[in-house]
Design goal:
Layout: H1 5-37, H2 47-117
Helix pairs in contact: 1-2
Keywords: Coiled coil, Membrane, Transmembrane, Transmembrane helix
Transmembrane segments: 9-29, 49-67
Coiled coil: 83-117
Length: 118
């Protein structure tokens, strides 16, 4: 599968933004618990649901992102293997071409020797 680096960069930026908001949500939850411990009251009751939804989104995005990293690593290994294979194949063709050139030169030299004798 061929992918665009701009897409990976954009997806990475989205992941960083969601991570930032998730950290903020956890900090807010921590602050919420500390403030409740000291007796302060909050008017918003949906803090836990916001934190849970952000956490679920972050986990899903991390799973997708790590799957893409795994695909990228496997693709990179495959390309490295193919490149090494093609380099070996090219070297074999070069060696074969040099051998054929040498054989051609030997035949040409023999023909020249025979022409000199005749």
């Amino acid at each position: 599968m061929r992918r665009n680096n701009a897409t990976d960069f954009f997806f990475g930026i989205i992941l960083i933004v969601f991570t930032f908001f998730c950290v903020l949500a956890f900090l807010k939850a921590g602050l919420h618990m500390v403030m409740k411990f000291f007796g302060f009251q909050f008017n918003d009751d949906n803090t836990e649901s916001i934190i849970l939804s952000v956490f679920i989104i972050l986990v899903v995005l991390l799973i997708i992102y790590f799957n893409r990293i795994k695909e990228y690593i496997l693709l990179k290994k495959d390309l490295v293997f193919k490149r090494k294979y093609l380099e070996i194949l090219l070297q074999n063709y070069k060696n074969e071409l040099e051998t054929k050139k040498a054989n051609y030169q030997n035949i040409k030299n023999r023909i020249d020797e025979i022409d000199e004798i005749l």
